[in-house]
Amino acid sequence: MNKAYYFAIAFLILSCNRNQPETKNTDKVAEFENIVGTGYLKLTADYDECGEWGGHHEEIKIVRAEKKLFAEITKDSVDCKNLTSRKIIEKKRVALNENHKKAISDYLHELLNKSLEEQIPYHAGQWYSAETIDSTLVLNYHEAGNNWKGFMKLKVELSK
């Protein structure tokens, strides 16, 4: 009986260690069904050209209107000598297609990964965030350097 017992344990251990294939839904595009009524998903980037005092602000707000998704893109500028002098320099609305939705979904995945890698924050740097109006999704990433180009890449994709 001892041999049978050890054989059963070994069999169970070996069965559990088998590599299972990963299932990835990389081809599936998010439909953003949680964006309804006055709801939205807001993606922001705050830059630091004025050092620890901040810099310009960019925002991509995903909204639904007439059963369609849109990206409302805004960008401001700021005079570092007068930080209250913000001016909107870019404002446009883009109807989202499948490629746009995939780009947004990819951006959110990348932002999540970046936020999990984040080190101790500094006083200056870029600040990226994604949040829904009801706070069911909140992601933040503070970058001390200027290496991550995810937000700029998303803006380019939304312009296509």
Write the layout of secondary structure elements.
Elements: H1 2-16, E1 40-46, E2 57-65, E3 68-79, E4 82-95, H2 98-117, E5 126-132, E6 138-143, H3 150-159
Antiparallel strand pairs: 1-2, 1-5, 2-3, 3-4, 5-6
Organism: Flavobacterium bomense
Protein name: Lipoprotein
Structural write-up:
There is one protein chain. With 160 residues, this protein is of the alpha+beta class. The protein has one domain: Mago nashi protein (2-Layer Sandwich). The protein has three helices and six strands, in the order H-E-E-E-E-H-E-E-H. A hairpin with a 2-residue loop joins strand 3 and strand 4. Helix 2 runs antiparallel to helix 3. It is globular. About 4% of the residues have low confidence.
Features:
160 residues; alpha+beta; Mago nashi protein; 6-stranded antiparallel β-sheet; 3 helices; 6 strands
